[in-house]
Amino acid sequence: MKFDIIIIGGGLSGLTAGIALAEAGKDVALVSAGQSTLHFTGGTLDLLGCDEQGNYVQKPLEAIETLNSKHPYKKLENVSSLAGVAKKLLERAGIATTGNETSNHWRITPIGGLMPTWLSMEGMSTVEEPNQMPWRKVALVNIINYLDLPTKFLAAGLREKGVEVDVKTVTLPELKELRQSPTEMRSTNIAKVIENNDLIAKLADEVNGVASEGYDMVLLPAVLGVTNGDKSQQLLKLINAPATYVATLPPSVPGVRMQTLLRKRFNALGGTFFTGDQVVEGIFDGNTLKGVKTAKLEDTVLEADNFILATGSFVSRGLVADYNHVYEPALGVDVDDLGLDRKTWAKIDVTEAQPYMEMGVKTDSELHCLCNGAAVNNLYAAGSILNGHNSIKLLDGAGVDMLTALQVVNNIMK
Amino acid sequence: MTKENNNHYDVIVIGGGITGAGTARDCAMRGLKVLLVERHDLSTGATGRNHGLMHSGARYAVTDHESATECIRENMILRKIARHCVEETDGLFITLPEDDLKFQSLFVQKCGEAGISAEIIDPQLAKVMEPAVNPNLIGAVKVPDASVDPFRLTMANVLDAQLHGAETLIYHEVIDVLIEQNRVIGVKLRNNHNGETINAYASVTINAAGIWGTLIAKMAGVKINMFPAKGSLLIFGHRVNHMVINRCRKPANADILVPDDAVCVIGTTSDRVPIETCDDMRVTPEEVEVLLAEGMKLAPSLGTTRILRAYAGVRPLVASDDDPSGRSISRGIVTLDHEKRDGLAGFITITGGKMMTYRLMAEEVTNLACEKLGLTKKCETATTPLPGSEPKEETKKYSFSQKAAQGRHGTLNESVDRGDVSSDALVCECEGVSVGEVRYAVTKLHVHNLINLRRRTRVGMGTCQGELCACRAAGVMCSDDKGAQKAINDLSGFMNERWKGMQPVAWGDNLAEAQLTAKIYQGLLGVDRLANERRVEYYEI
């Protein structure tokens, strides 16, 4: 089988590249193991939330200038324009967002903190200024028995910022089924139960019943709309007061929805999606990657003119650390292990910057992967698999995923 | 406790490990008025940092006949009185090609002399009985080893002590021993949560503080020659073996693999360490290497099994008084009557020994205390079941989490609220801990924070090491706005405490899991940013 481009990895980065290339008329195949770390996010995307000193950033574009030269953003030709392209790409996939790259806004974390972010999915609760809450009195309405929205922390966090908060709970008889087995009372299961319009209307009635008047914001757990945003928007419209969603503990319904919509968009554009499969071998000819073999397709070689490696970091198994070394398991390209041996990969204090976070594959200035020190001329890397940045400390994960993917697309299209 | 006349006891027991808990129980059952004090949480020291092995005594049969006979006797007693803390797994002592098979016959003979049933079995049969065992074994002996949950066992002893009128003060540290005219009359305690100090008085003060007993003795002006021996262990992410696997040779490093609950534990190393380091034991990369290499000889599949965490405890070994060099260190029980030994009345130290023989240690020291107090009531701890291990009722039909709680609390499981929507909600999927069980632990089992909760219910001990359950449990435990900040600090500390055990083994799936946890707790929730206090116990103990 032959394609123009084969993308390895079906997370935010791989799908961004896949959609952009398919929109440009390319014949694209994507090989995905199936999971994405979007499931562990909160319906928001970060570009750069912190500088290297750990201070929150208000103007990400300015702060990006101050990052050290190893950071993947330093390989982007124009951060600002790529960020704009990313936002529009999401929009065409049915993912409407608020926010822009010139100024961060603030998302509410599930335990009541405020953290800077770049784009928030429509309906998510955000504020413009961390020191100036836009609400006087808020109703925080949770579903009875749903433990993944820690309402006590959330309420305490908001009260500390001067907001009056009433915590309320609602339920629907239809959720009784889920409660029979306590392991089932999780966000994505709730979303699957509350799918039809009647139930959404009933839930809205319940919410209106407990938050009838006097509230200038009703906050709800983001547990509606796995497959598309319509259901979650519909509920908000039926609530008498202004209403928005707060992110929950994983799995994140907005995150799953984003993944689903991106994949739908890729399919609609004619992309080929090999799901539940993984690349196990690359067939190289000198400095060119000819094709890849996957676990499921056995002897079939998938060939392409260009390849993009977007399999993520350790958590996604894009990088693997064994007892003695760190390697990239799909193609065996060069990994930057910072020159450290195992004893120094991780620091004793969990809140310190962990060295392993900055490990990743090595690339040249055009994001080509290296193999035995030499650039592979048709193999690029994008997203969290790249070395040189700590996405937990810098809050730049989604930005690196999307923007490096778009830069790779530009490099391929040149 | 602030009024001077309310705080006089017959006995003060120092140390909330298994020895102190067992001693408090025995004293209380003999009718004494007892105060048990512990500077941190119950089972914080060596009690919570061992294999969870219920020795048959076979390990000591060749080298230490006395310990071996004590072990098998106590082994049989614990099966009866602590049924809900024990899993009757049996154990194998295997001989590998590199070992001397001649040792096996000596071993079996010595086991027989100590009263331990030791049956030589065909290596082929051993492979059938325990498929995880090294297939190259050339000899196998079956013995009555078992596994025991030390957290549960300690809690059960404390609960029974309380049922017999004992008082318990955890997070109360002895900062001085009060002495009047060559007699210990009590202790000065500091509340480690708020810094307040109080005095408590007793006719007899029993020092059961494990390795830290040497520091207590120093406060009383007496010297005990202790040899802190660090033992490191590794926990694996699932239960590879279902029988205890030992090496049939003289005791050495990393030659015991114990199945505990849903995991298994390999250990230990043994190295003398300075007493000052005992509050912050960390496992070194070299120890990890030894444990893995030796562990794979017992069960080769350990090499491909995820390691959940590494931890270390300190054995309170004592050298006899006439041997300051420490060459003749025994693992036997040491009861020091300081009145006879040092001319200091009202003060006894119980140390040495093993978790296995805690009940016997308690009996010995309680006998001595009773003698000093002129009491003759006999010890009944060997025949009275612990709370949770009373005779079985009819088996009811239980859900997953109810069964899990039944395993943890035995018959006390009846005290866990259930049947309503809010109590049945599941906090921890790995270990099946419900909201009701969390509430029960908070009200009945001395739970002040997430680490206490982990020791009582296993929250956060499963394969995810607290990925989501820690946050859920913190939410359940938190009471009001003021409590919320405290709970977030607690959550942050708990994640660091979990990391302390993961960091020495941070590769493979463990590193991937650590990255996910960091993504959730720091990236999504921002716990590290919201926490404003770091409690030392999460970082050092």
Keywords for this entry:
heterodimer; A: 414 residues; alpha/beta; FAD/NAD(P)-binding domain; Rossmann fold; eight-stranded mixed β-sheet; four-stranded parallel β-sheet; 11 helices; 22 strands; globular; B: 541 residues; alpha+beta; D-Amino Acid Oxidase, Chain A, domain 2; 3 domains; nine-stranded mixed β-sheet; 19 helices
Quick summary of this structure?
The complex is a heterodimer of chains A (414) and B (541). Chain A is built from 11 helices and 22 strands.
Structure characterization notes:
The complex is a heterodimer of chains A (414) and B (541). By secondary structure, chain A is of the alpha/beta class. Chain A has two domains: 2-96 and 257-413, 3-Layer(bba) Sandwich (FAD/NAD(P)-binding domain); 125-246, Rossmann fold (3-Layer(aba) Sandwich). In chain A, 28% of the residues lie in helices and 24% in strands. Chain A is built from eleven helices and 22 strands. Chain A has helices at 12-23, 60-65, 79-92, 151-160, 176-180, 187-193, 197-210, 230-238, 253-268, 391-394, 397-413; strands at residues 2-8, 28-32, 44-45, 97-98, 105-108, 114-117, 119-121, 126-127, 137-143, 164-170, 217-221, 243-246, 272-275, 279-285, 288-294, 301-309, 320-321, 326-327, 335-336, 360-361, 368-371, 374-381. In chain A, strands 1, 2, 13, 14, 15, 16, 21 and 22 form an eight-stranded mixed beta sheet that branches. Chain A has a four-stranded parallel beta sheet with strand order 10-9-11-12. In chain A, helix 1 runs parallel beside helix 9, helix 3 (79-92) crosses helix 11 and helix 7 runs parallel beside helix 8. The radius of gyration of chain A is 22 Å and the shape is globular. In chain A, 55% of the residues are buried. The model of chain A has no long low-confidence stretch (mean pLDDT 95). With 541 residues, chain B is an alpha+beta fold. Chain B folds into three domains: 4-46 and 151-225 and 320-373, FAD/NAD(P)-binding domain (3-Layer(bba) Sandwich), CATH 3.50.50; 57-62 and 84-147 and 227-312, 2-Layer Sandwich (D-Amino Acid Oxidase, Chain A, domain 2), CATH 3.30.9.10; 400-539, no CATH class. Chain B has 19 helices and 22 strands. In chain B, strands 5, 6, 7, 13, 14, 15, 16, 17 and 18 form a nine-stranded mixed beta sheet that branches. In chain B, strands 1, 2, 9, 10, 11, 12, 19 and 20 form an eight-stranded mixed beta sheet that branches. Chain B has a three-stranded antiparallel beta sheet with strand order 3-8-4. In chain B, helix 1 (18-29) runs parallel beside helix 6 (150-163) and helix 16 packs antiparallel against helix 17. The two termini of chain B are 27 Å apart. The mean pLDDT of chain B is 92. At the A-B interface, helix 4 and strand 17 of A face helix 12, helix 15, helix 16, helix 17 and helix 18 of B.
